[in-house]
Design brief:
The protein contains nine helices and eleven strands. With 320 residues, it is an alpha+beta fold. The protein has a five-stranded antiparallel beta sheet, covered by helices on one side. A four-stranded mixed beta sheet has the order 4-10-9-7, with helices on one face. A two-stranded antiparallel sheet has the order 8-11. Strand 5 and strand 6 form a beta hairpin. Helix 4 runs antiparallel to helix 5 and helix 6 crosses helix 8.
Length: 320
């Protein structure tokens, strides 16, 4: 059976749906089709929107509405903006789609974020770090969060089990990853996570636009309660993997504007743990039928996951 994004009837249905419920007429094109199906909507009036068809499993309507409630409750500043869902003609932010035999999915429509895509520069990471700090300082958001714990022991255990159960190679990879994580535990890395509350959950370059000194943060689908440093570690994980020019200065600007000394021993130990666990959890998240990874891609994924986890264990992360 073809994916929804490959079925022209599904796209036509969504186009008609946007016209009926939002009064928006335009051309729809797929941006990403992973767990969620994300589409760009180029309206005839020149405005641009993004529609999200939520994943089949793991996002109840209560979860989606909690995400939207958080976005409405975030206090914006001159340094921080968030992209909130549009309300339909009947005032709702989460609507139900009916794809017939393909099932029902939730849908939300968002305006395009102002500014430009974030880049791997010291300026952009300084702006992003300051905005993230402003999010984490808003303690009232924690009570609004979906019932989802981030970076906890259960999530890590489940991720290792998913990798091990994927294939014979996965079993070997899981054993190696577990050994690395055990060494970090013996160093006490899992006991220095200071401060918990609402986390974005997927805080990375592709989910941020920059407008001079302001960061516009979007795609809060993975938000939940966890250690605040988990959001920093998510960014650090991608920096460590991609290793852009000037990575050390970029990381120092990011953590410095957040208010964290990247050379503090406790901070370094916590970031190492969170990068390691986040890398394992990220790897497990794409071992699903929706992604249908090729054997070659799996080999690269497993190798990259082992390498990053070993760097965290050995305190040789590229971010310092």
């Amino acid at each position: 059976m073809m994916n929804l994004d490959e079925d022209p009837r599904a796209t036509t249905y969504l186009s008609d749906f946007c016209k009926e419920h939002y009064g928006i007429v335009g051309e729809l094109t797929t941006v990403v089709n992973g767990l969620n199906w994300t589409l760009a909507v180029e309206a005839r009036d020149g405005l641009k929107y993004f529609g999200r068809v939520y994943r089949v499993r793991g996002r109840s309507k209560a979860d989606v509405l909690a995400e939207h409630s958080i976005l409405g409750a975030i206090v914006e500043t001159s340094f921080l903006r968030v992209i909130r869902p549009l309300r339909s003609r009947d005032g709702n932010t989460a609507l139900e789609l009916d794809f017939g035999t393909r099932g029902r999915r939730l849908f939300a429509l968002y305006p395009c974020a102002p500014g430009r895509p974030m880049e791997y520069t010291t300026h952009d990471f300084r702006v992003a770090g300051r905005a993230l700090a402003e999010v984490h300082q808003q303690s009232h958001l924690t009570s609004l969060s979906p019932d989802r714990q981030l970076y906890d022991a259960n999530e890590l255990t489940a991720a290792l089990a998913q990798i091990a159960g994927h294939s014979a190679d996965g079993r070997e990879v899981s054993i190696e990853l577990s050994a690395c994580l055990d060494e970090l535990r013996r160093a006490g890395a899992d006991h220095v996570l200071l401060g918990r509350g609402l986390c974005h959950g997927d805080f990375r370059v592709s989910n941020i636009h920059i407008d001079q000194e302001c960061a516009h943060i979007f795609d809060w689908d993975d938000c939940g309660v966890g250690p605040y440093w988990g959001d920093l570690a998510k960014m650090g994980t991608w920096l460590d993997i991609l290793n852009p020019p000037g990575v050390l200065d970029i990381w120092k600007n990011f953590t410095g504007s957040y208010g964290l000394c990247s050379e503090d021993r406790a901070a370094r130990l916590a970031i190492r743990w969170l990068v390691a666990t986040g890398t394992v959890i990220n790897a497990a998240s794409v071992l699903t039928p929706e992604f249908n990874l090729s054997a070659e891609t799996l080999q690269v994924l497993f190798a990259r996951t082992i390498e990053a986890t070993k760097r965290a264990r050995d305190d040789t992360l590229r971010i310092g």
